[in-house]
Design a protein that fits this description.
Methane Monooxygenase Hydroxylase, Chain G, domain 1; metal ion binding; disordered C terminus; mainly alpha; 4 helices; DNA binding; elongated; 73% helix; Metal_Tscrpt_repr
Length: 113
């Protein structure tokens, strides 16, 4: 995780707590594959796809929260050079707009229910 620490001004970011959630999502995706192999009803498959998408959307804000916390901590401790702080601010702004546009893109539900 040295790469992670380098990008966060020496502050460790522990994303490993997301692994159990990601493993559950992986299981959901394998279940989707099985549903398709079994010829399950399309709407049932679509509902499960929506569940996977929702689960992934819950992972992202937790990871970004941890990232932001580490960046702020490194910045406050003076461990982050000015250029890196500016770069971090730009990436935060871009991520914020990406999250807002993803919420508005209509991808919340593939099928109107």
């Amino acid at each position: 995780m040295a790469g992670s620490e380098e990008r966060h001004g020496g502050v460790t970011v522990g994303h490993t707590r997301q692994l159990p959630r990601l493993r559950r999502i992986e299981g959901q995706v394998r279940g989707l594959q099985q549903m398709i192999e079994d010829g399950r009803y399309c709407v049932d498959v679509a509902h499960q796809i929506n569940a996977v998408i929702a689960a992934l959307r819950r992972v992202q804000p937790d990871m970004l929260r941890d990232h932001l916390r580490a960046c702020v901590e490194a910045s406050l401790q003076g461990h982050m050079p000015e250029a890196e702080r500016r770069c971090g601010f730009r990436s935060i702004s871009a991520t914020d707009s990406d999250l807002k546009s993803a919420g508005d893109s209509g991808m919340k539900s593939a099928i109107p229910i």
